UniProtKB/TrEMBL annotation:
The protein, known as: AbrB family transcriptional regulator
Species this chain originates from: Alicyclobacillus cellulosilyticus
The encoding gene: abrB
Domain SpoVT-AbrB residue range list: 1-45
A family per Pfam: MazE_antitoxin
GO MF assignments: DNA binding
Keywords per UniProt: DNA-binding
Keyword Cell membrane applies: no
Length: 87
């Protein structure tokens, strides 16, 4: 399959490809370069710490997975937790 760039450098992804990859109007695509290849991938936000894409929750505008949330919670000293509760 070959597609030509238009005068603004755009290409059209064929409908069948968009259906197969579940790419909808307005979805983000990540663009990577690997040697001589340009790679397009549907954007899927991941955990800011480990990159996991499942069990995500937003915290201060960043996505954090369950495992990292647990690890972060374990890293908080008890004395700090208690002093925060008292406020």
């Amino acid at each position: 399959m070959v597609r030509k760039l238009d005068e603004l450098g755009r290409i059209v992804l064929p409908m069948e490809l968009r259906r197969t990859m579940e790419i909808e109007k307005g979805d983000g695509l990540e663009i990577f370069v690997d040697g001589e290849y340009i790679i397009l991938r549907k954007y899927m936000p991941g955990c800011v710490f480990c990159g996991e894409t499942e069990d995500l929750m937003e915290f201060s505008g960043k996505m954090v997975c369950g495992k990292c949330r647990e690890e972060l919670g374990e890293g908080i000293p008890e004395s700090w937790k208690k002093s925060k509760r008292a406020r």
